[in-house]
Amino acid sequence: MKNNGLEDVIAAETRLSDVDGEAGRLVIRGVSLDLLVERATYEDAAALLLDGFLERPVTAADLKARLGQARAEVFAHIHTADAALLNLPPVDAMRALIARLPDGEDFETTLRLLAAPAVFLPAVLRLQKGETPVAPTPSLSQSADILAMLDASLPTREQVSALDAYLVTISDHGLNASTFASRVVASTGAGLTSSVLAAISALKGPLHGGAPGPVLDMLDAIGSEDSARTWLGQALDRGERLMGFGHRIYRVRDPRADALKGALAPLVMTGQVDRNRIRLAEAVEQAALAILRERKPDRPLDVNVEFYTALLLDALKFPRAAFTGVFAIGRTVGWIAHAREQALEGRLIRPRSVYIGPLPQAA
Ligand SMILES: CC(=O)SCCNC(=O)CCNC(=O)[C@H](O)C(C)(C)COP(=O)(O)OP(=O)(O)OC[C@H]1O[C@@H](n2cnc3c(N)ncnc32)[C@H](O)[C@@H]1OP(=O)(O)O
Ligand SMILES: O=C([O-])CC(=O)C(=O)O
Q1: Complex ipTM
Q2: Domain containing residue 50: CATH number
Q3: CB 3.0 to 4.6 Å from 292: which of 130, 265, 282, 301, for a disulfide?
Q4: Which residues form the active site (predicted)?
Q5: Which pLDDT value is given to residue 193?
Q6: Which domain holds residue 234?
Q7: What pLDDT is stored for residue 362 in this prediction?
């Protein structure tokens, strides 16, 4: 019997994260999201996720130092970004550059893969604007360096904390589509680079990690609080989905939405983000929730992580075409941890299909 979209199928056991869709709770390696986001840097979360999945133990301080070196090494590949590659959308150009890196399953490969999107995305964005890429500063944290490479200046403390909060928040999320892709590839023994490339390919679709750019397009198109209800109603009349709403697992508000809203607050308080944009977003969110309740009374649809992702990444001055690439920077550690977990299990993932095509004609 076919299961549409594999809904509710259990395809893995994992020690990495648990998504409770009824309670609206996310736990990453035994730590609840709110605690993790309050206390952890990107390196803390990466060390937590990778614990036990590398050939040797690694601390957050180790990772910070090794990642700094890895970013410098990966930056040496930037010169291979030719005109054809730079004509691609940023996430595709980033993926193409990662595809040129060696495959493997060891710690060096892991470091290279964690560093690669963090270096390639800012470099591609600068090259696409006709600017020179900024070399990484190995002594900086991953978040601080990403922002420095993006903007050619040292970020503020609030900006670094906000990016850390984002990268931690989206570091892992159960068996989502891109993580499943990573595990399928890992189960064939193909190597971590191959797993990450498959995962990026799954992530970029608008139903998954491609949603936050369209969220910002929607806010721009709505323009003012007064227009929200009419605009959203017309979009639903056209059969469109409201980006940043709905989820396969959550039947209540995605807990990451409030984690990211909280991460935006210091930027708002210090005047580093346009308050009007936030006010408009809050009004659109309320209007969308009300209209979705009216139109889809049988299907609880609430805000998902992508709505406040759009606002946070916009506030950090990432262009909207790059949002999916920033998601990939944060999720790569989850993809790698899942790939390692799957590889340790040692069994090929190979479900069955039911043939519904024509049978051969009898002779
Ligand atoms: C990081 C992430 O991946 S988070 C998700 C990011 N994606 C988005 O924000 C895109 C918008 N959201 C969606 O398309 C969906 O909610 C998904 C893809 C995330 C989850 O979809 P599914 O679990 O497959 O839900 P499904 O397709 O079964 O939808 C159930 C019903 O809710 C409706 N629905 C679901 N999401 C939305 C939405 N955002 N806007 C309007 N209606 C929606 C569907 O049209 C469907 O209605 P119907 O039964 O009348 O046909
Ligand atoms: O869990 C999912 O299906 C999608 C999602 O929110 C994520 O990958 O962060």
Answers
A1: 0.98
A2: 1.10.580.10
A3: 301
A4: 247, 306
A5: 98
A6: 212-315
A7: 84
